[in-house]
Structures are given as C-alpha cells and as structure tokens.
Amino acid sequence: MIQTFDALILGGGAAGLMCAIEAGKRGRRVAVLEHADRLGKKILISGGGRCNFTNLHCRPEHFLSSNPHFAKSALAGYTPGDFIALVEKHGIGYHEKTLGQLFCNGSAREIVEMLEQECRWAQVSILLKADIRKVSRADEFVVRTVDAEFRAPVVVAATGGLSIPKIGATSFGYDLARQFGLKIRQPRPGLVPLLLGPEDRLRYCDLAGVSAEVLASCREQQFREKMLITHRGLSGPAILQISSYWEKPHALEIDLAPGRRVTDVFCDPKVPRNTAALRSELRQNLPARLADRWLERYAPGAWSNAALGGFERQVHAWSISPTATEGFEKAEVTVGGIDTDELSAKTMECRKIPGLYFIGEVVDVTGHLGGFNFQWAWASGAAAGRAL
Ligand SMILES: Cc1cc2nc3c(=O)[nH]c(=O)nc-3n(C[C@H](O)[C@H](O)[C@H](O)COP(=O)(O)OP(=O)(O)OC[C@H]3O[C@@H](n4cnc5c(N)ncnc54)[C@H](O)[C@@H]3O)c2cc1C
To answer: Ligand 1, from 110, 129, 332, 364: best to mutate by most atoms within 8 Å of Cβ?
Structure first.
C-alpha cells in the first residue's frame, strides 16, 4: 500500500505535532508517523505531570548550542505569547510557578489533547505504531514501515533526543542524519543528576534529601537555585541546570552561601570566636545537618582573621568533581545533536538535502530547565511547518 502526502513528519511529540499543525493549517497534506501507541508521551510526563509548557522570559541566552545565534530566528517567529494564546483558545487553565515558568493547573494531558484537536482541525493524518524501517530518497522521499510505504517531497525528522528510552526515545534522528552525511554534535545527557565518586559519597551522601540554595558554577556558567543531595550524588534545579554544561573532568564550584559573608559577624568584638557562633551563622544559609557536616570537615584551624578568611573562601567555592551523570535514563534532555551548520535557521531545512528538515530536541539546541525546551520544540516546529 503506497500513500502520498505533501510532507511526512517522523515523530509525534511536541515539535512534530506543532509542525504538522502549522503545515496542515496552510493546506498541506501532512502525515505524522509515530512509533509509540499514542502521541506526546513525553509531554504527558513533563513538569511532574503538569507540563511546564513555556517560559515568559524566554531568550536566546537560555539555550546551549555550538552556534548561540541559531535559535534566534525561530524563537522570534513563535514566542511564548503565541503558545499561551493557543492554550487560552482551548480554555486550559495555567499558572506561573516561579521564574516565568508556566504550568497547567490541571494535567499535561490537556496540552496533548489540545495538540490532537488542532491536528484534527488541520486535517493532519496521524499514524500510530508506525515502525519505520527505511527512509530513502530518489525524486521524492520514501518512508517504509513494516506494512506500508509513504511518499512525499518533504520529510521532517522530529524524533527527539535520547533521554528516557523507556518511553520511546530512539537514535532515529541521528541515524537519519548520518545516512544523509550530516554532521552531529556528540549527544550527551543534560538536565541530569550528577554522580559522586566513592569518597565524596561517604562524605556527603548520608545527607540524602537535604537541600540548600546555592550558586553552582562550571565553565563560566552559573545558576542560583536549590541543590539536593541524593544517595548517589547531587541533584536539584541548580545541579540539573549546571549538568548541561558539565563534562568530565571539570569540577563544579558551589557557593554555599551566595551573596552573604558568614564570618562577618566576627567583626563585632562582642561576638565570641568559637564553633557555636560559626555554626549558628552557617545554619542561616544551610540546613543544620549540612552546616554541621561542613564544620566537621572544614572548621577553621584557628580563630584568626586569616583563618576565618580561608573558611569564608571555602564556603563560597566548594570544588567538587562529579564522576559521571545519571545518564539518559534520568536526563530530561539531550545536549548536542544535528549540527546547526547543516540547517537553515529560518526553516530548519538541511542546506545539503532540500526537503529534509530536523526540528526539536534532535537539533543541537538545548534549553535550560523551566519550559525552554518545549518553547524550542514549538518554535522550531512552527518554523518548519510554515515553510512546508
Ligand atoms: C521527565 C521529563 C520532563 C520534562 N519536563 C519538561 C518541562 O516541564 N518543560 C520543558 O520545556 N521540557 C521538559 N522536558 C523536555 C521536553 O519534554 C523535550 O525537550 C521535548 O519533548 C522535545 O520535543 P521533541 O518533539 O523534539 O521530542 P519528543 O517530545 O521526545 O518527541 C519525539 C517523538 O518521536 C517519537 N519517536 C522516536 N523515535 C521514533 C521512531 N524511530 N519512529 C517514529 N517515532 C519515533 C517518540 O515516541 C516521540 O513521540 C522534559 C523531559 C523529560 C524526560
């Protein structure tokens, strides 16, 4: 059975559905081929089930890419306001949780249902359980599944990154890029908890569950948010954010008392210079167990100004070297992907292979935590969809 369309979109996640909707609205005959048994599985589990679908403060600086300018055009062409308008059109309640992050009041399911409804209105054909075996190109693209053949002048790869393989992530997009001779920036896990080596685990991981607001830095990036100690290492928003920049053998530098000098109190001659006073200062920034552990390890050797100065510096520059990340099983995103040099920033079409497009997470554009990854999926999907 051969079916022909104007465009075949491989992958029915955030980017693929947005692309299909935009192209369908413009009268294109579009099919979405999704290998799972339902659309948007990652949307369903996102944001703790409430989908942090965009961020009010979305700017190009919130994205990692080997070309920091690449995302600008697509992000300007489809803004958080555009997605919010869509959400409001469907009567979906939402709220700002923190730092511009917008979540559904109810469930992420509402976002998937909204996209499905928009697909129906745009007369998009959806094919689930589409097990794609081969993509080839002669006069047009031919996509073969186990039991059917599809033809179209355009193929859009929207198969996402490698994170969370158990809900359907595959290397399909990267394999397709390789098949057509495109460059790929090595994919690696991002927004992912970090693992500590055996010695650091012994030192800190019995404090699992303890969290504190810190400033985490690595390779000239820094994030001031919560850090969480886990049974195997470090997590929490500050660590997830910095993990996207971390690579072995770099160390993280963690400021445990950002913006506050914990030893200033000792400038007052009436304050006794002793461990109890220092503990009480430290506990203003850190949970008691972490403050106590810090003092066990790094208490000043004397109460001189010089020794207190050393203690102060150490509190603001805890250098810790993770040994690895928790991997794609736990990563929220994939850093790296299809090299942006290969793509038009306006349309996401391959420069070398006309008619072949890559959108969403499979491209070397990765957002910070906080709704930016969906905004990239919507924006890159819309950019391609409007060009088809
Ligand atoms: C636990 C978790 C929570 C997250 N929460 C948020 C959040 O709140 N806010 C945010 O901005 N981002 C969040 N993200 C990131 C966000 O989900 C992704 O960046 C976004 O979904 C990427 O969109 P995409 O369309 O490129 O890929 P995906 O949404 O992953 O869609 C790819 C689709 O392609 C399909 N597919 C894969 N291989 C094939 C194949 N061979 N054949 C056919 N189909 C295939 C997949 O089944 C999937 O449906 C979260 C990620 C995770 C893992």
So the answer is: 332
Structure tokens given for 76:
């300007």
pLDDT in tens, 188-241: 999 999 999 999 999 999 999 999 999 999 999 999 999 999 999 999 999 999
Residue 377 Cα, ligand 1 centroid: separation in angstroms? 9
**Angular region, 290: left φ>0, alpha ψ -120 to 50, beta rest:** alpha
3-state DSSP helix/strand/coil % of the chain, to nearest 5: 35, 25, 40
Mutate to test the pocket of ligand 1, among 37, 97, 373 (most ligand atoms within 8 A of CB): 373
Index of the ligand 1 atom closest to the CA of residue 47: 8
Which parts of 166-257 fold into alpha helices (H)? 172-179, 198-204, 237-243
**Per this entry, what is the length of the chain?**
388
Question: Across all residues in the chain, what is the average pLDDT?
Answer: 97
Report CA(13)–ligand 1 centroid distance (Å).
6
User: Is any ligand 1 atom within 6 A of the Cβ of residue 350?
Assistant: no
| Beta carbon of 31 within 6 Å of any ligand 1 atom | no
Burial tier of 247 (Cβ tally within 10 Å: 0-12, 13-18, 19+):
middle
Q: What separation in angstroms does the CA of 194 have from each of 93, 121, 242, 325, 367?
A: 34, 44, 10, 4, 18
Q: Would you give the distance in Å from CA 37 to the centre of its chain?
A: 24
Q: How far apart, in whole angstroms, are the C-alpha atoms of residue 372 and residue 378?
A: 10
CA nearest neighbour of 136 among 176, 173, 172: 176
Bond into 300 cis (ω within 30): no
Beta-ladder partners of 350 = 343
pTM of the model: 0.97
* Any ligand 1 atom below 6 A from CB of 55: no
Mean pLDDT of 274-298: 96
Which of these, 282, 290, 292, 217, lies nearest to 255 by C-alpha position? Answer: 217
